[in-house]
Amino acid sequence: MRERGSVVVFALIVAITISAIVGGIFYLTDNPKNTSTDKDVAITQSQETTTPIQAPSVAVNQQPAPSSEPRVSQEPGPITNDAILPPGSLKDVQLVINFGQGKKYEALQDVIYAEEKTPLGLLKGNRFGIKREMKFDKFYADELIVVDKNNNLQSIGDYKNDYNYKWVSYVNSKAVSNQSTYPLQDKDLVEWIYGTK
Q1: What is the pairing mode between strands 94-100 and 189-196?
Q2: How far is CA 122 from each of CA 52, 66, 130, 158, 159, rounded to the nearest angstrom?
Q3: What is the pLDDT of residues 102-137, one digit of tens each?
């Protein structure tokens, strides 16, 4: 009886051993041995290069392109070179620009902008003074009102051209001689009248 039990145990051990060997063979057949280590896997992954997607470049705080259209000023700027009576240079000087036929500009410092076509060309005025825009090829003239070298004294002369027209300048109703200048003082009345020579 004891021998029979030993045979059964031995048979079980042999069966288990055979089944383990057969199972191992099937396992190795379905799953080939992988000899790479974790370190090898990490190296392989690091060697794989991918091309990054470039995002479109966007300028930060990009300002809009400046407009090429010129700005339209509501009023002419200060006249240079041809300026008369810079603001504050003389006090209470009254200017009268007489174009004849009842056309006058008075209190010029209050005129924002005006222009008048005259035989002498286009005369423009704003609160900073008068600017000549002569349209002739040949003319000669003294400044109607200029600032002297000390920048504190104004003087006037006259205009004339080859078309038999000229400016006649008056200070306090007194005509100024041809091609001469006259110093101005506070509260003077200056009048420019154009007419024939």
Answers
A1: parallel
A2: 68, 33, 11, 16, 14
A3: 555 554 443 444 555 555 455 555 444 455 544 444
Residue 145 exposed, middle or buried by CB count within 10 Å (0-12, 13-18, 19+): buried
Long-range CB contacts (within 8 A, 24+) of 132-140: 132/82, 132/159, 134/161, 136/161, 136/162, 136/163, 138/162
What is the per-residue DSSP string for 2-20?
HHHHHHHHHHHHHHHHHHH
Does the pTM surpass 0.70? The reply is: no
Structure tokens at 133: 């825009």
CA distances from 156 to 69, 104, 148, 175, 188 (A): 39, 19, 11, 11, 12
Side-chain half-sphere CA neighbours of 12 within 13 A: 5
Structure tokens at 129: 């003074």
Show the tokens assigned to 184.
Answer: 């101005």
Quote the CA–CA distance of 52 and 182 in Å, as a whole number.
82
User: What stretches of 85-143 adopt beta strand conformation (E)?
Assistant: 94-100, 103-106, 113-118, 121-126, 129-133, 139-141
Residues 6+ apart with CB under 8 A from 130: 79, 82, 84, 97, 108, 123, 124, 144, 145
- Predicted confidence (pLDDT) per residue in 72-85, tens digit: 434 444 444 444 44
Return the sign of the alpha-carbon dihedral for residues 142, 123, 77, 114: positive
